[in-house]
């Protein structure tokens, strides 16, 4: 992992102060133990969530053969579509799915576990505002866990990720691009290529605190030059900067 010396702690505190507290009364401690499913529900179409849906730790999927690897899917391929302001909690997403959860606007994803990510675990489509990922975890993502296609901020707290390509990626080549921000706090990561990828040419920032990365995580934060024409984005730099805001103490090897 790459660390360098900077005054990032002050910048991180300033950015964190601009985001309201996570909308929950109980913040779970990060755990690396995946829960046992209370049952399994095979969905023939995405389950649309408005308001709050408590899955009571049932496993939801889209049936045998739903996963098509890294083939790009759409909203119709998701297990859950969460409407603007929706709150999905206490759910297990099974391996038989192409797209896990699509947030159509600002959403709260609480204690949701992806047993084996197919294309993406969570896709954020809000144009503005803040979406919250609180607790839960994901494993087995060949590429991205959280794909941020819309704008605004994503807050990820007390999340566990294992065997992954990227925990978070700001879309590098979407047709409509936004300034995006991600705040990561209390994450535990194991066996991954990259924790965070952002497009600094669009003003993206990543703030990472209180997180524990195993030595098998290769990089903490990378900056890219994104585009809106579908081309592969160009990597600019790796490590702490004015856009990748963290310290060696705040992102420790564990």
UniProtKB/TrEMBL annotation:
Its cofactor is Ca(2+). It catalyses: Eliminative cleavage of (1->4)-alpha-D-galacturonan to give oligosaccharides with 4-deoxy-alpha-D-galact-4-enuronosyl groups at their non-reducing ends. This is Pectate lyase. GO terms for molecular function: pectate lyase activity. It comes from the Eukaryota. Pectinolytic enzyme consist of four classes of enzymes: pectin lyase, polygalacturonase, pectin methylesterase and rhamnogalacturonase. Among pectinolytic enzymes, pectin lyase is the most important in depolymerization of pectin, since it cleaves internal glycosidic bonds of highly methylated pectins. Favors pectate, the anion, over pectin, the methyl ester. GO terms for biological process: pectin catabolic process. Its EC number is 4.2.2.2. One of its GO terms (cellular component) is extracellular region. It holds the Pfam family Pectate_lyase. It is found in: Secreted. Its main location: secreted. Belongs to the polysaccharide lyase 3 family.
């Amino acid at each position: 992992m790459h660390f360098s010396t900077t005054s990032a702690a002050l910048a991180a505190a300033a950015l964190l102060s601009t985001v309201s507290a996570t909308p929950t009364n109980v913040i779970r401690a990060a755990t690396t133990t995946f829960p046992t499913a209370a049952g399994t529900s095979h969905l023939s179409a995405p389950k649309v969530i408005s308001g709050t849906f408590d899955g009571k730790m049932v496993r939801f999927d889209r049936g045998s053969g739903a996963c098509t690897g890294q083939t790009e899917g759409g909203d119709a391929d998701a297990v859950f579509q969460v409407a603007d302001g929706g709150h999905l909690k206490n759910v297990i997403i099974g391996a038989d799915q192409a797209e896990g959860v699509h947030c159509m606007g600002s959403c709260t994803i609480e204690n949701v576990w992806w047993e084996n990510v197919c294309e993406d675990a969570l896709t954020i489509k809000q144009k503005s505002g803040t979406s919250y990922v609180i607790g839960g975890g994901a494993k087995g993502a060949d590429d991205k866990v959280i794909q941020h296609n819309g704008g605004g901020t994503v807050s990820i707290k007390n999340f566990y990720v294992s065997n992954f390509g990227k925990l978070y990626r700001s879309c590098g080549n979407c047709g409509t691009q936004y300034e995006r921000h991600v705040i990561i706090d209390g994450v535990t990561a194991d066996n991954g290529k990259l924790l965070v990828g952002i497009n600094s040419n669009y003003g993206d920032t990543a703030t990472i605190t209180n997180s524990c990365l195993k030595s098998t995580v290769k990089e903490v934060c990378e900056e890219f030059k994104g585009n809106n024409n579908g081309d592969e984005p160009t990597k600019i730099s790796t490590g702490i900067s004015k856009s990748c805001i963290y310290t060696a103490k705040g992102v420790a090897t564990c």
